[in-house]
Each structure stands twice: as C-alpha cells, then as structure tokens.
Amino acid sequence: MIVQFGSALIELVLGDITTQEVDAIVNAANSYLAVGGGVDGAIHDAAGSEIMQELERRYPDGCPTGSAVATSAGQLSARYIFHAVGPVWQGGGKKESQLLESAYETCLNLAEQYDCQSVAFPSISTGVYRYPVDLAGEIALRTVATKLESTKQIKLVRFVLFDQGTFGCYSRILETMLV
Ligand code: ADP
User: Fold this and answer.
1) NCBIfam families attached here (predicted)?
2) Which CATH architecture has domain 2-177?
3) Distances (CA, A) of 61 to 6, 21, 79, 125, 165
4) ipTM rounded to 2 decimals
C-alpha cells in the first residue's frame, strides 16, 4: 500500500527491514543501546559489530526513551541507522503516547539533518515493549503524515512490518486516514 502526503509517500510493506534499500533504517533500540532481540538483534546481525562499537564510542550514556541517535550502517545498503528508543507499554498512563510520538519525530528530524530522502521504520515498541499495535500504529502513521506535509527533504517513509497482523493493522489505519 502506498499513499501520498504532501510531496512525499508513505508505503507499507510486509518484510524484513534489514534488506531495505533506503537512506536510513530505524532500529527499535533500548535506552542502554545494548544489543537486544527482535528487530534490534536482526539489524546488528546484518550490519556488523562495528555498529555496537560506534554506539559505545559516541553514545556511552545511552539514549533516553522518546529519542534517537544516528550511526553509520555497516554492511547494510542504507547510509545510516537511527536507533530510536520507544516506551515500554505500562497501560497508557506513563506518557507512552507522547514518548512514542517523540521517538518517531526525532528520527524524522535526524533524516532531515542527515539529508536522507528515504527512511524505513519498523513498528517501534509493539514487540517486546508490548505497545498495542492499533494504538502504536495510529501514532506512527499520524506523526509521519504530519511531518511529510511540511518537509521538502523526505520523499519516502516506508513502514516495514514483520508479520501479517501488524501489516493489516497499519493498513486499516492508513485507509481511515484517507477519508
Ligand atoms: P520493541 O522492543 O520496541 O517492542 P521489537 O524488536 O521487540 O521492539 O519489536 C518491534 C517490531 O519489530 C515487532 O513488530 C517485531 O515483530 C518487528 N520485527 C522483528 N524483526 C524485524 C525485522 N527484521 N524487520 C522488521 N521488523 C521486525
């Protein structure tokens, strides 16, 4: 599914983020920037061990929840990895929605700062961090759509969704945003 917002596109695909040919790939990291499982493990495996060395050297204090940091992309075809730290779902009363929005916004700002035209996002926080996919998808898509109405730099944001349930959920939300 592909939809135009402003002069840019939002695309939803079912697949593996590590193989995407885009300028920047977003990782769902943890605040220690330590290697984890899920999409983080897959990205570090595919990109190579120099990414962890770069994170330790440049960001020894980690990254706060709701923010993101940039590294090079090692063996990936992307130029950069943006390591975003989404919130752990705790029922919705711990500012999770603001923190998730801010994680996406920080990545979009990094994309502008690093001259990226295309960015691929996973579904941040909806794996081990247990954020309900319908709520997280709404925030993800609305935050990106809002940014695309105002940026000239970013031309494509691709959500790379790993399972059919997440892909279906994001697709339904994007459809409702069109009416
Ligand atoms: P978080 O800790 O932020 O919840 P996870 O990595 O546990 O992060 O999960 C985030 C989402 O990324 C989940 O939907 C998970 O299925 C998905 N995911 C796992 N591996 C990949 C991959 N290689 N490409 C894209 N998405 C992936």
Assistant:
1) PRK00431.1-6
2) 3-Layer(aba) Sandwich (3.40)
3) 37, 30, 24, 21, 35
4) 0.98
